[in-house]
């Protein structure tokens, strides 16, 4: 019997220990607490966003903001799990431009059309509203505008005697050959073609640059027509010819940046962040050597009237539909997007308001950081030609099929035509479900 | 020592060299990378020993206020959380798991077999499949982002493991020892605590190591169930070193070295117990 | 007297059973909450078409999710890949683990340090392990390329992770490095418990080291080997974290394992019914594998 008592006591002790160790932090009662999920270090740093949150709290003492910062790769999963709970784990979250369709269908996003003020609608870039508007209803607030840029290493081109960066992809191939023959770098071009969303972004750039499209006006897959196949074949050819780094097939955007700023490539297509990293002496060996040029297009595309081609990679804040505090959340989001906040931090992140890109404000914006005189004009030049990826609720699965197809073609498992045809068949099946 | 014995020992010792190389090449490279700055990390050919070694990566973690980005600053807290959670899981699982394992291996009763099979069967489901239902439960109990939620959810896979492993060890305890104690008038519980447990210390410690590392290692649950520093663990902190716009591989390597230290320390402390042989002599006579 | 001793025997038996339930109670309680309920709800979900979402209708579809999976070519290719990973990975771990365990047991110089060092790969968290190996395999800056180049085995850097036939093997190496120590240590502990007198007697009878190893030690290690085997096989088949970190299933899905496919369905594609069905299909496979082992492990021995 004594052993039984001892035993029961020990079990009790352990359970208590676990309980105490675990339930250390308690939720404070009182003001309304808003949970916001956002991307870590994209645009504004967490310290800066925290500062904005504190400023907001000072102006609104009955609202408390709890920010959570996550890498892009995990945000989608956290939103999905967060929304499984009631009340949801988040009141607001940052969305990538490709998620609204899926989330709207899942009922995650709150319709905010009626909350918008007229100057919001006219004051921000229309293109950034496109990302969050479906069927005339608006589901979020634009936050970070980003597109894919074409960057090249000025010094390497100069060394090769090339006067101007390429205007067409065909020109790029010629220039890359020259640089390769010179021996400056072994693989002049680097891409983010690994089996993630990045490869679809790159493919989108090339596809539209060839005058192609993802779906035709009837909504049927069009990327497996001759234009799409040409773009994919071109991708493979540049690897076979030793111009595109073969590691592109396993590289993501971070790897592209790493490669470019280490001076291992002359041409790199990437999001805006690569430029400021290239000028960061603590990381880069090519400080001052990077430059922008409008994204090239294919000769065929230029002939067909395509003036520019890039892909939209913006993000927006959305209110989660089941939040118990939609009004307070909206208040915070409008504060985040307000002109005063945006201009205050314009050194870190391009503001979403058109007015900041006009006249005197433009000059001020350009002077805000050492990189801005270059990045702001580059943005203004490239942004108008940013295409969207297909707007369908099953986008993740469709994109996965396309990612697989491109990878199969690049690794030689299937021919480009075969791979794209299989992906197109999958898209048709998904659309039918 | 005779020549034969010496040459045998020499030969065996030579064999340890490739094993050491296999174990240490990646680790030393990890360590070397943690001592590099970013520019040096990206050189071709790689600098096996950094030309400009720096402790900055470690300093960033230990002296957070000086760190440039938020990730190293919060690493120490994540380390503490991991230690708390892994220890709690290990202690609970070893204790109640060994009790259950003993009951299952030594006491015949009606539901013994079905329970055994049930425990094994629950191990078969991939952990990620249980995330959503567990999240819903945890959220309705308001446990999200508290260390207790990880302790409980880790038990869903750690406890069956502990029972399973301990059962295997108990099976190697000679029944004669227990029969001898029974003849001496010991109750079942008495046999368990006075005879079987002391002999099974190596098994208990090995299982404890395994459970500790299982909990220490876990990534996906920690990612989903925690959101802020209150409960963030080391694997999640490590994952944040490389984000979409960040290159801090050398920081991550430093974090990785530090992340391996607590389990290694635990192993060092309990090394003696892991291999103390059984008292086989107790029944010989 | 006779009646008294019969009574005592019965009570002892009953007491035993009661003790058993007492010992099992805490474990069962915990598992009821954190394992049983989620497993049951996932099982139920597998019979529904359950798109992720709040206002989503869940339609009962019976076995449709299962049948669709079993008809899907990607499913079978993935099972094949996962089996390859499991067999090669566990085979390597067992071989290396046994060899190293025996090596330690034979007490060469520095054996204590060797046994201690084994903890290190095991102690490195999977995510660090994955990131580290991904860095080692890096096409442009990786240590593997650097080493092979300096040894003169290759003349230019190879983009290892992009090679469809190599990628899985590279993930296997990374996984074996990390988990082999567990097998080695389990076997080593078991070896330490093997009575030496049997071995010595065999040596006196003229058996050489090799024979002694295979005919005496290994059979005595059987329980430990089988535990390690079954644990590792079930875990290897369900591998997820390391694939997530190193290759994300690529290139061209060449490293896509069955659990990763489940993850994609449940999280990325929003098809929770399909994900649940996949989970149970995986369980079926692992249960079959475990069953095969159990026949050897749980002998109908000792206590009645």
Query: What quaternary form is this?
Result: heterotrimer
Stretches of chain A where pLDDT is under 50 for at least 5 consecutive residues are: 20-28
- Largest contact between protein chains? B-C, 106 and 98 residues
**CATH 4th-level superfamily of the largest domain in chain C:** MetI-like
Q: Taking strands numbered 1, 2, ... along the chain, how are they ordered across the largest sheet of chain A? A: 2-1-3-12-6
Show the helix and strand layout:
The complex is a heterotrimer of chains A (433), B (285) and C (304).
Chain A: H1 2-22, E1 32-39, H2 46-59, E2 63-70, H3 72-82, E3 92-96, H4 100-105, H5 118-123, H6 126-130, E4 133-134, E5 137-138, E6 141-144, E7 149-153, H7 154-159, H8 169-182, E8 189-190, H9 197-209, H10 226-240, H11 253-261, E9 267-270, H12 273-278, E10 290-293, H13 299-303, E11 310-311, E12 315-319, H14 326-337, H15 339-344, H16 359-367, H17 372-382, E13 386-387, H18 395-410, H19 416-432
Chain B: H1 3-34, H2 38-41, H3 56-62, H4 70-106, H5 112-122, H6 131-140, H7 147-171, H8 175-183, H9 188-199, H10 201-217, H11 220-225, H12 234-239, H13 249-275
Chain C: H1 2-45, E1 48-49, E2 59-60, H2 64-71, H3 73-105, H4 111-117, H5 119-123, H6 126-136, H7 143-150, H8 167-193, H9 196-204, H10 209-220, H11 222-237, H12 241-246, H13 258-268, H14 272-297
Antiparallel strand pairs in C: 1-2
Textual characterization of the structure:
The complex is a heterotrimer of chains A (433), B (285) and C (304). Chain A has 19 helices and 13 strands. Chain A has 433 residues and is of the alpha/beta class. Chain A folds into 2 domains: 186 residues, D-Maltodextrin-Binding Protein, domain 2 (3-Layer(aba) Sandwich), CATH 3.40.190; 163 residues, Periplasmic binding protein-like II (D-Maltodextrin-Binding Protein, domain 2, 3-Layer(aba) Sandwich). Chain A has a 5-stranded mixed sheet. A 4-stranded mixed sheet of chain A has the order 8-9-7-10. With 285 residues, chain B is mainly α. Chain B contains 13 helices and no strands. In chain B, helix 4 packs parallel to helix 7. The radius of gyration of chain B is 24 Å and the shape is flat. Chain B starts with a helix and ends in a 10-residue tail after the last helix. In chain C, 73% of the residues lie in helices and 1% in strands. The C terminus of chain C is likely disordered. Chains B and C meet through helix 1, helix 4, helix 5, helix 6 and helix 7 of B and helix 1, helix 4, helix 5, helix 6 and helix 7 of C.
């Amino acid at each position: 019997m004594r052993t039984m008592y001892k035993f029961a006591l020990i079990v009790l002790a352990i359970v208590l220990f676990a309980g105490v160790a675990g339930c250390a932090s308690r939720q404070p009662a009182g003001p309304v607490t808003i949970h916001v999920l956002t991307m870590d270090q994209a645009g504004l740093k967490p310290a800066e966003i925290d500062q904005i949150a504190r400023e907001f709290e000072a102006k609104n003492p009955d609202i408390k903001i709890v920010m959570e910062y996550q890498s892009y790769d995990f945000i989608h999963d956290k939103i999905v799990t967060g929304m499984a709970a009631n009340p949801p784990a988040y009141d607001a979250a940052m969305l990538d431009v490709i998620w609204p369709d899926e989330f709207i269908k899942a009922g995650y996003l709150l319709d905010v059309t009626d909350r918008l003020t007229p100057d919001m609608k006219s004051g921000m870039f229309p293109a950034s509203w496109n990302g969050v508007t479906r069927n005339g209803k608006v589901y979020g607030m634009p936050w970070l505008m980003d597109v894919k840029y074409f960057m090249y290493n000025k010094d390497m081109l100069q060394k090769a005697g090339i006067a101007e960066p390429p205007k067409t992809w065909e020109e790029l191939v010629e220039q890359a050959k020259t640089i390769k023959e010179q021996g400056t770098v072994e693989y002049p071009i680097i891409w983010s073609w690994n089996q993630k969303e990045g490869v679809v972004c790159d493919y989108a750039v090339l596809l539209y640059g060839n005058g192609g499209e993802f779906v035709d006006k009837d909504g049927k897959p069009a990327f497996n027509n001759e234009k799409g196949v040409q773009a994919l074949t071109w991708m493979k050819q540049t690897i076979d010819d030793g111009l595109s780094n073969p590691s592109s097939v396993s590289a993501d955007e971070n790897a592209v940046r790493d490669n470019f700023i280490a001076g291992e490539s002359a041409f790199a297509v990437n999001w805006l962040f690569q430029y400021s990293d290239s000028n960061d002496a603590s990381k880069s060996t090519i400080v001052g050597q990077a430059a922008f040029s409008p994204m090239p297009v294919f000769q065929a595309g230029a002939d067909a009237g395509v003036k520019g081609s890039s892909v939209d990679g913006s993000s927006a804040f959305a209110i989660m539909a089941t939040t118990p505090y939609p009004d307070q959340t909206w208040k915070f989001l409008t504060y985040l997007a307000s002109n005063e906040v945006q201009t205050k931090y314009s050194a870190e992140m391009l503001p979403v308001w058109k007015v900041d890109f006009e006249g005197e404000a433009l000059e001020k914006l350009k002077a805000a950081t050492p990189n801005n005189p270059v990045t702001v004009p580059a943005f203004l030049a490239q942004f108008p030609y940013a295409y969207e990826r297909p707007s369908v609720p099953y986008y993740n699965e469709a994109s996965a099929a396309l990612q697989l197809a491109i990878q199969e073609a690049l690794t030689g498992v299937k021919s480009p035509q075969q791979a794209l045809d299989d992906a197109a068949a999958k898209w048709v099946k998904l659309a039918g479900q | 020592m005779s020549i034969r014995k010496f040459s045998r020992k020499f030969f065996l010792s030579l064999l340890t060299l490739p094993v050491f190389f296999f174990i240490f090449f990646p680790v030393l490279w990890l360590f070397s990378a943690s001592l590099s700055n970013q520019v040096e990390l990206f050189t071709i050919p790689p600098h096996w020993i950094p030309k400009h070694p720096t402790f900055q990566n470690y300093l960033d973690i230990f002296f957070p206020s000086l760190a440039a980005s938020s990730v190293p600053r919060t690493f120490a807290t994540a380390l503490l959380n991991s230690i708390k959670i892994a220890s709690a899981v290990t202690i609970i699982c070893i204790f109640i798991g060994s009790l259950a394992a003993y009951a299952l291996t030594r006491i015949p009763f009606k539901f013994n077999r079905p329970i055994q099979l049930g425990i094994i069967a629950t191990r078969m489901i991939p952990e990620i499949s249980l995330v959503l239902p567990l999240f819903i439960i945890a959220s309705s109990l308001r446990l999200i982002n508290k260390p207790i939620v990880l302790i409980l959810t880790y038990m869903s896979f750690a406890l069956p493991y502990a029972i399973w492993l301990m059962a295997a060890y108990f099976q190697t305890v000679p029944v004669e020892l227990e029969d001898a104690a029974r003849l001496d008038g010991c109750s079942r519980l008495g046999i368990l605590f006075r005879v079987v447990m002391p002999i099974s210390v190596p098994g208990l410690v090995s299982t404890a190591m395994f459970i500790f590392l299982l909990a220490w290692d876990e990534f996906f649950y920690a990612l989903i169930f925690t959101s802020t520093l209150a409960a963030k663990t080391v694997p999640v902190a490590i994952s944040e070193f490389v984000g979409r716009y960040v290159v801090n591989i050398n920081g991550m390597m430093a974090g990785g070295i530090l992340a391996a230290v607590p389990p290694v320390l635990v192993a060092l402390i309990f090394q003696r117990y892991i291999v103390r042989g059984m008292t086989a002599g107790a029944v010989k006579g | 007297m006779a009646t008294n001793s019969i009574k005592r025997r019965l009570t002892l038996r009953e007491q035993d059973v009661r003790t058993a339930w007492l010992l099992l109670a805490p474990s069962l309680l915990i598992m009821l909450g954190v394992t049983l309920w989620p497993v049951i709800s996932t099982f139920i979900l597998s019979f529904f078409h359950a798109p992720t979402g709040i206002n989503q209708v869940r339609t009962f579809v019976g076995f449709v999710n299962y049948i669709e999976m079993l008809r899907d070519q990607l499913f079978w290719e993935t099972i094949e890949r996962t089996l390859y990973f499991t067999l090669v990975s566990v085979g390597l771990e067992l071989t290396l683990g046994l060899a190293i365990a025996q090596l330690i047991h034979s007490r060469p110089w520095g054996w204590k340090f060797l046994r201690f060092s084994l903890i290190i790969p095991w102690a490195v968290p999977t995510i660090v392990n994955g990131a580290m190996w991904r860095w080692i395999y890096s096409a442009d800056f990786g240590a593997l390329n650097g080493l092979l180049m300096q040894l003169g085995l290759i003349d230019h850097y190879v983009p290892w992770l992009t090679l469809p036939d190599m990628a899985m093997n590279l993930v296997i190496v990374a996984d074996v490095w990390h988990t082999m120590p567990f097998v080695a240590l389990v076997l080593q502990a078991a070896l330490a418990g093997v009575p030496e007198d049997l071995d010595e007697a065999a040596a006196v009878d003229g058996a050489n080291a090799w024979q002694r190893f295979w005919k005496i030690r290994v059979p005595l290690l059987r329980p430990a080997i089988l535990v390690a085997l079954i644990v590792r096989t079930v875990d290897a088949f369900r591998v997820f974290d390391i694939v997530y970190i190193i290759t994300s299933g690529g290139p061209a899905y060449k490293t896509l394992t069955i659990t990763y496919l489940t993850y994609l369905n449940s999280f990325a594609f929003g098809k929770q019914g399909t994900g649940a069905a996949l989970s149970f299909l995986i369980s079926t496979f692992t249960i079959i594998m475990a069953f095969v082992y159990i026949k050897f492990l749980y002998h109908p021995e000792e206590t009645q």
